[in-house]
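[09:14] KT: can someone run the structure on this one? pasting the chain below
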Amino acid sequence: MLSSTILALFGAVCVAAINYPGGQSLWKVTPKYHILGLENVQFNDIDSCLANCYNRKECFVVDFDTNTKPPCWVQTKSMVVDSSQLKPMDTVTNYMLSSKTPAVAVAVVAAKPKAADLTTCWTVTPKNHLIGLVQAPYNDVPSCTDYCFKLKDCYAVDFDTNTNPKCWVQTSPSVVPDVRNLFPMETVTNYILNKSCKK
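[09:31] RB: done, structure tokens below
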């Protein structure tokens, strides 16, 4: 009994403080509630998740759901959000931003590489796909290709209008992104990145 109490006390002491972009006073935190209409993005820690939202012009709300992988959900489109829209959910903590300080720069977004131009860097092949790609949480072509561009081993994307999400990316160097390796598929457009664009 005593040992479990000591562990509980140490556990509480070891919890890292959250780095609130713009300052903690700008964020209203509501444990065990979420808001519908957010998009799942590739961040696994709360600091990066909040920073991602803070650097999106349209984002004023975050859900951090420990039951999803990745757990970060952010607002990606203009919509009215307020506390009246919160719905109970045990695994989620909701973070609502009251305002933004434009002068504050957050490292997560500042470190993003320049995106590859769709018209000059990608070979586009409609109605074809590449085997071995992994689904990613994006439903528009620019977000999908930008995500691939930031991944070390990604030089190919399939955008499949018949899946949800629609984005599929290369995550392994064993997949060879070459138009000769494509297979016909009506609902897919394949994008292969020119390696010189990533240097």
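[09:33] KT: thanks! The chain has two domains: 20-109, 118-198.
[09:34] RB: yep, looked fine to me
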